[in-house]
Each structure stands twice: as structure tokens, then as C-alpha cells.
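Schema walk-through. Below, the input block comes first and the output block second. Nothing else is stored per chain. Lengths vary across the set, and this one has 56 residues.
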Amino acid sequence: MKRRDLVKLLEKNGWYLKRNGASHDLYTDGIRIEPIPRHSEINERLAQAIIRKLGL
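--- output ---
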């Protein structure tokens, strides 16, 4: 999955960039924080696990 597609999905559901980490960007919904790797292509299994974990 392309990173930009995952970020668009997060932002569409109310998540926003909190800060940049060393190798990850940290997104939050105000309560939870989720690190998103800064690779242009994110492993499909990892992307699905993040989506499932956040309930999107």
C-alpha cells in the first residue's frame, strides 16, 4: 500500500500529524497515537494491521 493512501485514510477519519519521529510520523486522533513508517511503500500486512487496529 502506498504511504500516501494510508495517510489519506487516516486523515479522512479524523487523524492528524502530531509530530515527526526519527523514522516514523506520529498520527493521533487526540487520544491514541499511531506511528506510521516513512517508507513510500508500506508492507500490505502492516498497513492492514494498522487499519484493523484503529478500526477504520
